[in-house]
Structure formats: C-alpha cells, structure tokens
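Troubleshooting: if your tokenizer reports a length mismatch, compare your output against this known-good record of 123 residues.
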Amino acid sequence: MLNFTGIKLKADYNTNNMIDYKLAKKLKEAGFEQKGNGTVIDEHDNVQTLRTSGFQLYSPTLSELIEACGESFDSLTLCDGDWRADGIDPNIGCVVDCCGELGQGSTPEEAVANLWLELNKLD
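Known-good structure output:
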C-alpha cells in the first residue's frame, strides 16, 4: 500500500490510466467529450501516444470528470477501500442515490465517471 497525504492507495493504482476501456466506451457513447488532458487507451487498457485505430478511446482526468459533472458534483470519499462519488440531481435538488454500482469505483476517476453517467441518464 502507498500512503499519499493520508490516503492509502492500492499498490497497483495506475496513475496513467484511471478508467478501463469498457468504462471509457460508456462515457463516449453517452457523449463525453473525447479530448483533453487525459490519455488514449486501447481495447487492452494500454495507454497509447497516438490515435491509430477506432479501437482507441479517451480516458479523462479526474479534474475533467468532476468539471463535466458541474454543479451536480457533491462529494468524493474513500470508504472501505472503494471510492464513492455523490451528486445532486438538479431536477429534484437532492443527493443522487449512488448505492451499488452507481458512483462507486476502485479509483476516484472510476467513481466520478460512474456518477457522470448516472447524472447524464437523469437528463
């Protein structure tokens, strides 16, 4: 385990590729912008330096994911080794229920990506 400013991270935490291809594909299909400061990954979750095929997708940074959630983003917490992102449903003004798969992940990026997908499903 690595310890970074009081937060324990798993040793296999990959700082170059925070979400996998499957989740990156869901983001793309839901309309997440495919450019920014993140990385490009292939279908085997390998980071690529150039886009050379249709099997490569954009993996956004945590900052980009939070920014994309906008004012609906509420919080990001680490609980029992998993990350949980909560948001506010702008239609009803209360916290989105993020139990189960929604708004949770093994990395902060995965949790916020799942939250973004849920928030965009509400629109």
